[in-house]
Structures are given as C-alpha cells and as structure tokens.
C-alpha cells in the first residue's frame, strides 16, 4: 500500500495534472492519487500522510466536487494524521480571493485534528487577499500554484515543496526533481 494518500478535486484538469506531477516526484508506488468525487470518508482512514489539492473558483468559491464532499471531509477524524495542502488559483484575475478554497479546507482539516505541514512562502506572488494567507508567518497554508499566470514556475515549486513535505512527513522517500 502507498504511504501517502493524495486527494484532489478538478473541473478543468489543472489540479488533477498537478496531483499526478506530485506523484511522479514522490514515486507512483508511494502515492495513491484519488479524485475526491470518487471517494468516501473511509479512504482517509488508510493513510497517516495525506495531501489535499483544491482549486479556488471565481470569487473564492470551492470546486464543485469538494463542495459536494464538504460535510464529509469535516467529519473525517484527522487525529494522528499529517496533512499537506496545495491550491490552485489565479492571482491576477482573482487577486482578492487567491487560494481561498485552500484556506477553507485547511481550517476544516485542522479543526478535525490534523497536523498540517507544507506551508509555503508568499515570495514571488502578487495578490490582494487570501483566506490561505498566514500574515504572522508571511506564508500560505500550503503550496500555491498559479497555472494561469505563472505556469513556468510550477515545476520548480513542485520540486521544492515535495522535498519539504517528505521531510515534514518524516518519510524516507527520494524525491525526483523534474522539469515538466
């Protein structure tokens, strides 16, 4: 069984694509990638290490599959589990709501007992406001990806974040740096 469960929601494929790029870096044998539209609460019980991927839609809205699973995710027992998050958003088109869905998901899993890791610096991003922003630490609550405006930075960000998350998970996984 894989050591890490990676759950994502995606309407247009960007978040799904990033999920599989993470799996490539961590090793497909180490990560089981699952669409949140196809899972139940039970799948979360199989993993101590979990990665959650969520895009922000329009004016700070939650992606549709995550929205349908929202009540369920709030009832998952995350005690003893370590969770890392990544979020997709458009910092220039929706700079007042950049990564809001990731911030909302962070709050839900934190309230359900998760230890959250994978916080990410805000250097290199331009946004007005975000529910995923921690001002006291000047960081996001997870990896920030902007495939609309900064697609050329995604590979390097994924390489760095994956290495960071593996270390924070305390796992002995060799992370592959890729140029994809």
Fold and architecture overview:
With 180 residues, the protein is α/β, with parallel strands linked by helices. It has one domain (4-169): Flavodoxin domain (Rossmann fold, 3-Layer(aba) Sandwich), CATH 3.40.50.360. The chain is built from four helices and ten strands, in the order E-H-E-E-E-H-E-H-E-E-E-E-E-H. It has helices at residues 14-26, 64-74, 100-111, 154-169; strands at 4-8, 31-35, 49-57, 61-62, 82-88, 115-117, 120-121, 133-134, 139-140, 143-145. The strands form two sheets. Strands 1, 2, 3, 4, 5, 6 and 10 form a seven-stranded mixed β-sheet that branches. The chain is globular and about 40 Å long. The protein starts with a strand and ends in an 11-residue tail after the last helix. The mean pLDDT is 95.
List the helices and strands and how they pair.
Elements: E1 4-8, H1 14-26, E2 31-35, E3 49-57, E4 61-62, H2 64-74, E5 82-88, H3 100-111, E6 115-117, E7 120-121, E8 133-134, E9 139-140, E10 143-145, H4 154-169
Helix pairs in contact: 1-4
Q: What keyword list fits this structure?
A:
Rossmann fold; alpha/beta; single chain; 29% helix
């Amino acid at each position: 069984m894989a050591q890490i469960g990676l759950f994502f929601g995606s309407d247009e494929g960007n978040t799904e694509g990033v999920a599989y790029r993470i799996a490539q870096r961590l090793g497909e044998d180490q990560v089981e990638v699952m669409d949140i539209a196809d899972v139940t609460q039970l799948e979360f019980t199989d993993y101590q290490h979990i990665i959650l991927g969520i895009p922000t839609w329009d004016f700070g809205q939650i992606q549709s599959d995550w929205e349908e699973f929202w009540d369920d995710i709030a009832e998952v027992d995350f005690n003893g589990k370590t969770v890392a998050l990544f979020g997709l958003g458009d910092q220039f088109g929706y700079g007042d709501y950049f990564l809001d869905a990731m911030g909302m998901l962070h709050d839900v899993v934190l309230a359900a007992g998760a230890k959250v890791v994978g916080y990410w610096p805000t250097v290199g991003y331009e946004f007005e406001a975000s529910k995923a922003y921690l001002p006291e630490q000047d960081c996001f609550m997870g990896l920030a990806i902007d495939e609309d405006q900064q697609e050329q930075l995604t590979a390097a960000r994924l390489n760095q974040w994956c290495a960071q998350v593996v270390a924070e998970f305390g796992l002995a996984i060799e992370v592959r740096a890729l140029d994809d």
